[in-house]
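Quick illustration, no need to memorize.
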Amino acid sequence: MVPSQEQTASAMLYSSAAMSASPTPIKPPKTRDRDVRSLVLRTVLADHANDANARIVQELGLEHGSCRVDIAVVNGYLHGFELKSDADNLSRLPRQVEAYSRSLDRATLVVGSAHLPEAQALIPSWWGIKVVHMGSKGALKLETHRRLRNNPDPSLFHMAHLMWRHEVVEVLKANGATQKEMGLNRAGLYRLFVDSFQPGDVRRKIREALKSRENWRRPEQPS
């Protein structure tokens, strides 16, 4: 039996109404930078906050401020945490990876789950990865996706850029540097510093300078 025009129209209206009534899929909420930062500080770094031999520094400048570490831990290593929430984009990550890899002993990417596949392809295999998931009620959960390893090829010269000029001069002066040597430009001082000590001592002196520094926002002019 062929349906009448009225029956066909009625069926179409019913189908349209049924489709309208179907629930729209709800996208999970996006993680935000301030929430990710707070999560890392109160979980991953909680133990370091009470460690007298460690210092936590937010927005640590690398290579005289050309790049900043979101959160750095200075203890027996220089360990930087780069935060990328779901609300961020990854356009700056390749340049940040280069700076971190020159200047730090260890690095961890803390990334929103939405960015994980793309971000993982942009970072070296020695970087650690922690993924932030947000539940339907807004609770954040942090899980280790890849364990970190030590940086296989850091640059002591670029690490030395973490020290301010007067800090390098004090170390060189104590080591017997001449007045002429201490008058070198900043790049020359860093090179002299790196060449004057064993690699382990260079790293230790850099960490000591960062731990003992009091005025982190002191203006430092190039020379």
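The chain has ten helices and six strands.
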